[in-house]
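Minimal example, chain plus pyridoxal-5'-phosphate.
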Amino acid sequence: MVFEPPLYLDACATTPLTQAARLAMDQAQDLAWGNPSSLHGFGLAALESLERSRWLAAELLGTTPEAVHFCSGATESVHLALLGLAEAFARPARLVISAVEHPALNAAADQLRRRGWQVSTLPVDATGRVLLEPLQELLQPPTRLVSVIGAQSEVGTVQPMAAIASLCRAAGVLLHSDAVQLVPQQPLLFDASGIDLLTLTAHKLGGPRGIGALLVRPACLPLLKPVLGGGSQEQGLRSGTEAVVLAAGFAAALQQRVQWLASDQANALRQRRDVLLAALLAIPGLQLSGPDPAHQERLPHHISLTAQSATGQALSGRRLVRALWHQGVAASSGSACSSGAGDSAASPVLLAMGYEPAQAAAGLRFSLLPDTDAQQLRLLPAALQAAMAACC
Ligand SMILES: Cc1ncc(COP(=O)(O)O)c(C=O)c1O
């Protein structure tokens, strides 16, 4: 059996450009292609388009336009947040991050480490949820900054951001969150969230690749310093001629996604995910990894599993992904950024959750698009069983 057209179940990796984003970008490309810093009409048209995108993004995310700083994506945004804030402190202090961050955030933390900062890692439980007690203990000097991923991409864990924010607030410690996976799946109002800095990216929610944003609470703005020098765009925080066309696509995609989240369709997708999950868990050798959606917070479009053979041997997630693609199914092993080599590479996220190395190489993820329909999903369990048989 081969899915024709192929079945795309890798929304956590990226999403196709929506029609709304494409239209907005075409329009901006035609009418607002100038440089927003130019003083003539072409520049003014570009500036107007850029500020309209900023205003729309701010309104959709429950904040003010001054909080929204466009940049090239989440990788840049997390570096600006961590390295830019570190500049505010006269001497190196302590950064606390969770054990299940994206490699981009870990890389920014490593840079701080090389500058003399202490970096402490917050442990997670067996479902990938950060533990609040150790956080409480770490929220004392020299801790100045905490960064916690809003929702974990590999295992779908939605972190208790409200509780984390109130602990950080009470301790006077700044909080950044990589909300790349959270924003496309759950309504989020930045000003009410208690989070000081928030990272998001357009390509996970139907927008174009190459644009994201760092939201910054007004009180933190004077603390944040640019990482790159140049033309001082984006309130002096992010130099480089602004990507007006991409910003238009980002704002349009965000608008469509926020409207979708408020609709019955979002709930219907969650139900389709639950039906699929039940069918997959009926297959011998498959186990859920991450939170059980029946009891805990989990991204509503997300399924993560570990796989083993009938004899109890862990199956390589990467091999399963390739075997699924032979049948036209696009999934992810969830260990694209892994330690170890080749098909037996263990996922650092699963290791942090307490999995043995062999099991930590057996992760498999399906993440649904808003328009993935039940009919398409009906044949997935049989395809996965065939893939497992091929990998034994
Ligand atoms: C949680 C998370 N953070 C950061 C990134 C990096 O995003 P970008 O591709 O916009 O740099 C990703 C993308 O894979 C992600 O899933």
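The chain has two domains: 19-259, 263-391. The mean pLDDT is 96.
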